[in-house]
Amino acid sequence: MRNLYIDFDGVIMNTIEITYSELRERNLDSKNLEDQEQIRDYYTNIDWHELLNDKASVINDAIECIKKIDASNRFNMAILSHVNSLHEAMEKVEYLRKYLKDITIIPVPRDTSKTEMVQTKDAVLVDDYAGNLEEWKNMGGISIKFSTELDGKGFPVIDKLDELLDLDILQD
Predict the structure, then answer these.
(1) What pLDDT score does 125 carry?
(2) pTM to 2 decimal places
């Protein structure tokens, strides 16, 4: 059985869209080196409970899709999510546990590569960030881009998680 890792932000929930909008409202630009400390503070201090439960929404029925993938018994599945703080990790786990009782959740410290947290060889990563996917591929893994615009940036692309069950590259 193949290992499957699914990113959280921008794949399961639209938290990226919301936080980027809030950063723009504060005139903070992730490309501006002078703004980096304020951006890190923002992500560390944001009320993740409120973001996950009141502001953000699930993308393209992701929770139900994860249940469907799990029921297929084709993958050893886990959620692999970058976090900026222990508070963020705890809130993501609490949120996911409401819907997914038996899925492993692996918080990854922001400055650590996802490839350093788990075995990547022949494992699948579904992520919306091409940088993570490139690292994963370079470490012998299978990279699948999640994009609601279906922009794969050179990677196989899906816009709904249960499409993984039909991808030719994942057929045994």
Answers:
(1) 98
(2) 0.93
Q: Convert the pLDDT of each residue in 91-148 to its tens digit.
A: 999 999 999 998 999 999 999 999 999 999 999 999 999 999 999 999 999 999 999 8
Determine the topology of domain 2-13+59-170 in CATH: Rossmann fold (3.40.50)
User: Backbone phi, then psi, for 98, in 5-degree steps?
Assistant: -65, -30
Beta bridge partners of 159: none
Distance set, CA 143 to CA 13, 38, 61, 161, 164 (Å): 19, 31, 21, 13, 11
* Of the candidates 98, 108, 152, the residue with the CA atom closest to the CA atom of residue 129: 152
Is residue 157 classed exposed, middle or buried when 0-12, 13-18 and 19+ CB atoms within 10 A define those classes? middle
The residue type of 75 is: F
Query: What type of residue sits at position 160?
Result: K
Residue ranges covered by each domain of the chain? 2-13+59-170, 15-55
- Measured distance CA(164)–CA(85) in Å, rounded: 30
Beta strands in 7-163 (DSSP E): 75-83, 104-109, 124-127, 142-146, 157-158
